[in-house]
Design a protein that fits this description.
The protein is mostly beta strands. It is 10% helix and 27% strand. The protein has helices at residues 15-20, 271-276, 286-291, 358-364, 389-395, 398-404, 446-450, and strands spanning 38-39, 45-46, 69-70, 75-78, 85-87, 100-103, 106-109, 112-117, 124-128, 135-142, 149-157, 162-168, 175-180, 187-189, 194-195, 198-201, 212-218, 222-227, 230-236, 241-242, 247-248, 255-263, 294-305, 319-322, 332-335.
Amino acid sequence: MVRSLLPLGVALFGAASVLAQNPPTCSLDKKCPEEAPCCSQYNQCGVGAFCLGGCDPRMSFSLDSCVPAPVCEDKVYKMNTLDNYKDISEYLGDPDTADWVGQGEPLLYDGNVLLTMPPKSVGTVLATTRYMWYGNVKAKLKTSRGAGVVTAFILFSDVKDEIDYEFVGVDLETAQTNYYFQGIPNCADSVAIQDDNSGNITDLSNTYDNFHEYEIQWTPDEIKWLVDGKVGRTKKRSETWNETSNQWAFPQTPSRVQISIWPGGAETNAEGTINWAGGKIDWNSDEIKNFGYYFATFSEVTVECYKTNSPPGTNKGVSYYYNNIAGTNDTVVDSNKPTVLKSLLGTGTDMDKGGDNSTDAAETSGVHNVPGGSSSPANVPGSGSNSGGSDSGSSGSSSSGSTQSCDTKSFSQNCGSSGTSGNSNDGVRGADRTLGASAFAVIIGIAGLLFL
């Protein structure tokens, strides 16, 4: 598969909002400016949601620009409700108010959550509000299917450590697995420049028709990938020494669980990416005709925190933060620092900014406070033709609100739409996507996605 040092999320965000929003960009060589100090997962600078999950302290104005991240908590996430989900435009950092944050259109069907990808969209992503610093995580899911359609279940840290499962929709018998240290492929042969980050688990029964339990067991010394309780791959830390950087190229920092569906076969992608994803997406496929979207089905996610009395891997306090730009496990602090902003104008150095007038202040401020901006969601199956109205666009509440009113036994999720609305399914929600599917796996062309 084609790999890149650029995050996948750099390009995967809503077209309408990108055209209207132009936040500063950030990198290791170009930190965010003081007035927009937080570097989001997608290398864009801002305040508010930019400073919460995914904020990279190495690329931000200062290490403390990012809000501390909520520590791990053992939990079984039953995917039979969306009451525990918030759009990132609604979330201020309190993990007790939501288990999941994200963008896109998650829907309920028959006691499970569907991550959907309507025509010409960039899909749906959910991320946990709490972080894992080692431990075990399992997801019971059915993948999507179809050329160019990719399902992902990953661990992703703010400094871009990653452990993942990826599923390509034309190969329903294989789970692809990857790991990265700070997003950098580990070259097994410096002459051949061939990375050893990837490995496949094969001979699975149809991953679209059948639920499987995919598990990641992650300790300071090794990673194991298991399917239905059987170990399919193991990577030891001792195998990842990088002589060039003089360090272990092994994921080691607190990470969020992310689940997603995304368009690897978008026609604007690089040829290598499209080929890896199984070809170009057919937006007129039977899946689209029958249901209105491609989808992946999630039944349950279970997190078991790592158990230790001393770092790395503790979860004794309230939050994690970094005390050094190196972004390694010995720079992570398990602390009692707060995690909650008063408004989406806040940052890690001014968490009370905005106060009780947060909504009005955020809407009238010229500062970017939600990556990609916010606008009315597309009329996808599950939202209904008039479900959001003008009220839901700014609040972001339509994702859960409108879905709750749908008949969750009706697979197509039409929600009583009369079909007379002028809206269509080809819009894209105006907020950038926290797409985890191997965030360094492919380059998605920004300019191309703007005009899907």
